[in-house]
Amino acid sequence: MTFARTTLALLLALAASPALGQSQPKTVVELFTSQGCASCPPADALLTEIAKDPQVLALTLAVDYWDYVGWKDTLALHGHSLRQKAYADQRPDRKVFTPQVVVDGMLSAKGSDRAALQRALFAARSGGGLTVPVSVKRDGDAVEISLPESKAAADGADLWLCPVMRSQTVAIGRGENGGRNVTYSNVVRGWTRVAIWQGDARSYRVALKDVSRDGSDSVAVLVQTGSPTTPGPIIGAAFLPLGN
């Protein structure tokens, strides 16, 4: 067993099982993946494993640029392809590929490379990790998000609310993964830009009907510097299963 695999196993063993209430992660992992990518299923399985750690908000962002090879990804959003490209434009390597993970909006690694992902997670946490505590709760037919005063957003930060499916298994009919059943975890189904937060203590209320998508059963909240076209570091995050 490699050092990275052993370390990850210890992290998961030490992490308590996530409760049905809000989780306050210390790191955000975004996996850019595609049902039409033959090398993606191992990354999808690794993300499912990582998602068990309540200190990590692990999200699946399915992209659509492999649809031409014979299978249209049933979970893909074109905005995810744009987000991945926008991330790449901010980095010196400018690389876009699948499976690719981006950690805290800054660090890129191959999504199926356990050791590379573990290095990125440790680097992100060593650099301070997420510095803004985010509170999110369900209040009837709405979601309420609260943010404390913080100098980290003095120049403004986007507050995103994303409907999420915690688990979805897809029978892939054609293409490079034709005949396979692949399970995806924490699948992002949409993006709502709630506000441009200026670092003041604020609460925001969003009606569930405005953000719900078919199959979504949870919401993820991201606080990210920069802009949609020039995304910067993610400085805060939270995850909330919605229940019935």
Name some characteristics of this structure.
alpha+beta, Thioredoxin-like_sf, signal, DUF1223 domain-containing protein, 244 residues
What features would you describe in this structure?
The chain has 244 residues and is α+β, with helices and mostly antiparallel strands. The protein has one domain. The chain is built from 4 helices and 12 strands. The strands form 3 sheets. Strands 7, 8, 9, 11 and 12 form a 5-stranded antiparallel β-sheet that branches. The longest helix is centred in the middle third of the chain and has 13 residues. It is globular and about 50 Å long. The termini are far apart. Pfam families: DUF1223 (PF06764).
Radius of gyration: 17 Å
The profile of the biggest β sheet is: 5 strands, antiparallel
- What overall form do the CA principal axes indicate? globular
SS summary, helix count: 4
Q: Span from first to last CA?
A: 41 Å
Q: Please indicate the percent range of residues in DSSP E strands (runs of 2 or more).
A: 35-45%
- Summing up helix and strand content along with how strands pair, one would put the structural category as alpha+beta
**pLDDT average, as an integer?**
91
The count of strands amounts to 12
Share in helix: 10-25%
Low-confidence stretches: 6-19
Domain count: 1
Order of SSEs: HEHEHEEHEEEEEEEE
Signal peptide: 1-21
Protein name: DUF1223 domain-containing protein
Organism: Xanthobacter autotrophicus (strain ATCC BAA-1158 / Py2)
Keywords: Signal
